[in-house]
Write a structure and sequence with these properties.
- This protein is α+β, with helices and mostly antiparallel strands.
- The protein has helices at 2-17, 148-176, and strands at 30-36, 40-42, 46-56, 62-73, 78-79, 91-96, 101-110, 114-124, 130-132, 136-140.
- Helix content is 25%, strand content 40%.
- Strands 2, 4, 5, 6, 8, 9 and 10 form a seven-stranded mixed beta sheet that branches. Strands 1-3-7 form a three-stranded antiparallel beta sheet, with no helix packed on it.
Length: 177
C-alpha cells in the first residue's frame, strides 16, 4: 500500500511540475482603433473614408499586415458583400515594427438602406493573429420625402413631351411630302 501511495505522489508531482500547453486564446498582437467616423446616418450613396489606427503590440516585427472593413446587417443578421459597397479590397500596410502604429483610410460607399455595424479588422498573413475594432453604427435610410409636385410633373410631363414630339415629327414629315 505504501508503494502505491509513493507512486501516486510521484505521478502527481511529475504532472504538476511539467509544463502544460494551455489552449487558451493567445494574447493579441495587433490593436485596431477606429478613429472616424463614430457613426453614419444618411441616405444611400454616401461615400465615407473610414480611418483606423493599427498598432503592433509586440516587441518584434509583424510582417505582411493588412486592414479591411467588415459590415454586418443588423436586420438580416448577416455580413454584407462589400463588393457592392466598393470596400472589398484591403489596405496593405506591410511590415509593422515593434510597438509601431500606422493610420489607414478605407473608402466605403453605402448603397442599400438598412442598419449596420461597421468595424475594421487587421491581420498578418504570416502570423495567425486577427484583431478587430469596436463596431460603429451605420443607419442608411430611404429617401421617402420626395416633392410630390416634382414627381407628378415628371410623371405626367415626360409622356406629354414624348407624345408632342412624336406628333411634331409626324406633322413635319407629312408637310414635306
Amino acid at each position: 500500500m505504501r508503494i502505491w501511495s509513493l507512486c501516486l505522489m510521484a505521478a502527481i508531482l511529475i504532472v504538476g511540475l511539467s509544463p502544460l500547453k494551455v489552449s487558451a486564446q493567445e494574447a493579441s498582437k495587433l490593436s485596431v482603433e477606429l478613429l472616424s467616423p463614430t457613426e453614419v446616418h444618411g441616405f444611400p450613396g454616401i461615400e465615407q473614408l473610414v480611418k483606423a489606427k493599427i498598432t503592433n503590440l509586440t516587441d518584434s516585427t509583424i510582417p505582411d499586415v493588412m486592414a479591411y472593413i467588415t459590415m454586418a446587417d443588423i436586420h438580416k443578421h448577416m455580413t454584407v458583400n462589400l463588393e457592392d459597397y466598393s470596400a472589398d479590397k484591403p489596405i496593405v500596410i506591410g511590415e509593422l515594427k515593434a510597438k509601431e502604429s500606422r493610420e489607414v483610410e478605407l473608402p466605403v460607399r453605402f448603397v442599400y438602406t438598412s442598419s449596420y455595424f461597421l468595424y475594421v479588422t487587421a491581420i498578418s498573413t504570416q502570423i495567425p493573429s486577427i484583431q478587430s475594432s469596436i463596431a460603429i453604427p451605420i443607419d442608411i435610410i430611404s429617401n421617402s420625402k420626395m416633392d410630390i409636385g416634382a414627381v407628378q410633373a415628371v410623371t405626367f410631363g415626360m409622356p406629354a413631351i414624348m407624345i408632342l414630339s412624336l406628333i411634331a415629327v409626324v406633322v413635319y414629315r407629312r408637310k414635306r411630302r
